Amino acid sequence: MNNFRIKVLQIFIIVAFAIMGIRLLYLQVIDNRYKRESASNVMRYEMLYPPRGEVFDRNGQYIVQSKESYDLMAIPIDVEPFDTLKMATLIGVSREKLVKEFKKAVRYSRRRPSVIIKQLTKEEKLRLDELNIKGFYTIYRTIRSYPQKIAGNMLGYVGEVNDRIINNNNYYRSGDYIGMSGVESAYEEVLRGEKGVKINMVDVHGVSKGSYAEGAYDTLPKSGTSITCSIDAELQKFGEELLEGKIGSIVAIEPATGEILMMVNTPTYDPDELVGRQRGNNYMDLLNNKRRPLFNRAVMARYPPGSIFKIVNGLIGLQEGVLTPSTKYPCIGGYTVGRGVKCHNHISPVDLDYAVRTSCNAYFCYVMRDIIDNRKYGSVKKGLDVWSEYVKSFGFGVGLNSDFNGELKGYVPAADFYNKYYDGRWNSLTVISLSIGQGELGCTPLQMANLAAIIANRGHYFTPHVVSRIHDRDSIDARFYEKHNTLVDDKHFNPIVQGMFDAVHKNQGTARVAYIPGLDVCGKTGTAQNPRGEDHSTFMCFAPKDNPKIAVSVYVENGGFGARIAAPVASLIVEKYLNDSISSSRLPLIEYVKGQKIDYSVYDE
Amino acid sequence: MMNRRDNSTLLGSIDWITILVYVLLVFMGWLNIYASVYDDTQSGILDLSQRSGMQVVWMGVCAVVAMVILLVDSRYYHIFAYPLYGFSIMLLIAVLLFGVEVNGAKSWIMIGPVGFQPTELAKVTTALAIARYMSYYGFSFNKLSDFFRVAMILGLPFLIVVLQNDMGSAIVYTSFLIVLYREGFTGYIYVAVALIVTLFIMSFLITPVSMIILILLFCVVSEGIMNGEWRAKIIYLAYVLLISLVTFFISSICLDSAISMVTALEVSILLSMALVAMYAYRYRFRNISLFIVLLFSSIIFVAAIDYLFENVVQMHQQKRILDLLGIENDLRGWGYNVNQSKIAIGSGGVWGKGFLEGTQTKYKFVPEQSTDFIFCTVGEEWGFIGTMTVLALFCILIIRLMKMGERQLDPFGRIYCYSVASILFFHIFINIGMTIGLMPVIGIPLPFFSYGGSSLVAFTILLFIAIKMDLTKRESQN
User: Fold this and answer.
1) DSSP track, A45-76
2) Do A42 and B363 touch (CB under 8 A)?
3) Which of A129, A237, B256, B403 lies 20 to 30 angstroms, CA to CA, from A515?
4) A437 CB-side CA count, 13 A
5) Structural domain tally of chain A?
6) Whole domain around residue A141: which residue ranges?
7) Is A20 a domain residue?
8) What share of chain A is helix, strand, coil (3-state, %, to 5)?
9) What ipTM was estimated for this complex?
10) How far apart are CA A516 and CA A183, in angstroms?
11) Separation of alpha carbons A348 and A351, rounded Å
12) Do B347 and A34 touch (CB under 8 A)?
């Protein structure tokens, strides 16, 4: 009996020790969790922020600069009683605000540093340094400043990261800045540089115990890389002036490279408003503005292209062989088959050149029906799909893949769409609006400018992009060097170009207002119907006719005829860019454009 | 029957392995105390203003005490067992009346600048007293008076220490259950204790329905192992299941609110007792009553725990229990200490971070790191290798003490050695178990490691009296 009990006790003891041993094996050898948690206990990462990369325009002028700025920090336990009023006055905040923020810091931790006031200016920081208040210090940050005060929407703004960004991206920590839109967002990884880090060890109270491993793992911040935009700051500023008070967009592209020369969105705003301590309020004001100044219309708005789209249909007709430059169609007040499409008063019948010049609706209705009712495709459905493929080769409906995040693809309908919408019962007359750029078509001003560039290039384009150089790299993204050919052969462009030239230069041309002596502007007006109020005024053009240097599209919401506002604006842009100035004889045109008042009550309801 | 002894036999017969293990443990403890209080501004390991320096002083005291114990004739421990016990009880009462309160426990006496915990001494004298009493010729647990006296010798210091509000030290007295088992105390008590603990833990981990089903299955199967008749078992279980389902559905049809499945099961088991009675009568199995008692007491016990836990046990105690069982994890409150302790030990890895390199202990994330949580420093700085070494040394020490007990000629020495083994084991298991999340947080020291004069000296006395007894026995054999 006793021997049994002795054995039981010995086994009991050994089992108990074995349990502890196994538990220790698990804790110390198998489970890695505790090593990580140990590190998070002891190490405090102090961020060293790099200055953000700056932005130049194509002529080397600053459009975005980084300005030094300081965040006021405090470690509450080190703070001794001080003159709160004096300090508040010094840094330009109310005493209540200062006290409130300080109390918040105390609640967070008495021993860990907290941000008290963000973004002090250098002067405020220097004055503060003189006072040398115990427990307070400043850390270096940079904020944006905009010497030209232009292109707010295109450049985008910088803001503090939110929880969603922090969760999705390992790089960012609370308090970091990130490009929220436009170029700032698209080139975030280039502009931001790399944060440095100083690893300190702290005890259980958060008190620093010196650097970790003698600073072996510390890194210095790496400044953000500057970039050069292809924007011409002068041109951009001029464009913003011209469209002031109107809602719309101007996009200009250099056809040979795809570089975007300007991108105006109106209404616009002073980009400096979204920097500094007033940023929050200003941002809310802009956000609540019904005319949506924060909306980058040039790449995000979906507009009907209107008559400028007739060019595309003409080109497809030529390529498909259903149209020759000498083909003539009658037009007595419009296209009379089916529901019909009205047209303005002009001679009849007309050939292609004249149809482009005077923007004849009926002519392109015939062309459109010939394309999609083509016998060789068997059915209108197949015919429309073929048409759709052509249109997409111009960058419509598929997106251009420019360097703007959130660029809209636009919309080009194919047979599927109408099959669903009309339950399969439709024919070429049902979709006749497509012939004149109305109906289900939707595209962005950038796509319209790109269309102008395609015609200028006689059949190809380079993906439009706004950044032409990243300063520490030899080249920009490879996709911007790739030539995109449309499905229409080069030779078919010449008659169309001639038509656009004649629209500016000959009698009955719709775009005569865009005429600039010696610059050989080729243009096409558009008057896009829309269900909300007056027609949109649109215009696309390029110049000079041979070896073009600039392609422009102008879109003015509710501006009426293309020739009323869009065409004069575009011609002023072309003249400014190619001649550097507006000739005195055309100065009244500027006054005329600025004097045109448009009723935007639809926005303000 | 003492032989004349000279120094050579004294040194020759002594259990050098135990001494070596002891010295190693104390030395390692000292290094770890130094590491746990170390920071860069500190002077040396011998600085008397620091705990590591003070520990050296205590180690010196221990060396003297150990020598004295080895020189005193071992008969005196038998002779003075009761007076020493009485003296320590008086000290404990004195502490209760005049003591100093530290961390909520009134367990300190100040003698000049030096604090002293009589609780630690009482462990030694209680071990001596219990050994003395249980070794009288004719002692038997079957005699009620003997049983009561044993209960009194253990219960008295236990009670006073509870009154001092030092629960940790009081629980140590339950470690004597190990000794009592060795000396023939009935095994059923231990089975019952094991059962209660199991039921207690299970009642938190699984639902009442599965709990009752488990208890029922356990009783039926163990009855089957004893008596056979498996067909009857299956019929019985089917019957209980059927009745409980019928009860459940009838109640849900007839009553306004259906009774719970638990109640249905309980009703069904109660009804099944008629069947059990018939079965027992037919097969004449006497031991069936045992299982009936087991079944009902378990069910009642589980229900009682539920009730007590919800209505009687205080919130913070509830949390501690739930935390230990891994049901709730409150890392800012109760779980904080244990979590930090686990982080420290776990982050040591296989090889440890190296002496004085432990960040968790150095920067004070672990509480009480030189006393109750000293094992964290071992785990963090010496890694798995270090913790295994310490565990192995402790295990050797305890097994060796039990062997020492077995080779004693008279029961007094045997019981005393087992008491020492039990007390040490209990401290080690509770303390290390607490730092690695196996045991609830109970503030008792790790023998030879934790900083503190009283405990180091007391454990040294405890151990060296056993060594002396072993030495005496070997000499007498020479």
Assistant:
1) EEEEPPPPPPEE-TTS-EEEEEEEEEEEEE-G
2) yes
3) A237
4) 30
5) 2
6) 47-229
7) no
8) 40, 20, 40
9) 0.86
10) 33
11) 9
12) yes
